[in-house]
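Shipment paperwork, digital attachment
Item: protein structure file
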Amino acid sequence: MGRTVRTYRTVLEELIADWERFRKALRKEDREAFDRLMGKARAHASAASYDARVDPSESLFMSILVEQERELAELRTELDELRAKVVKLEQQHQEEEQ
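Attachment content:
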């Protein structure tokens, strides 16, 4: 007998394929952004498989949101580090002027 329940990865690829007409209507740079988003959804397919939902698109969007939140946190950390360096350089510059 065959498998009766489709895997989330299979369902995810079907969901992504359902968006293909939308993707094709996007400008090139937006298509690239779209593809990156779908890559984010694929990156979390294991977690989505573990938490089977009635509507698998919820898992697709939550996967994207989780990945984007992680990236935002990394950017915030980098920004804070850069700000600290700027403050330090400004202080050094002020000390040199005195």
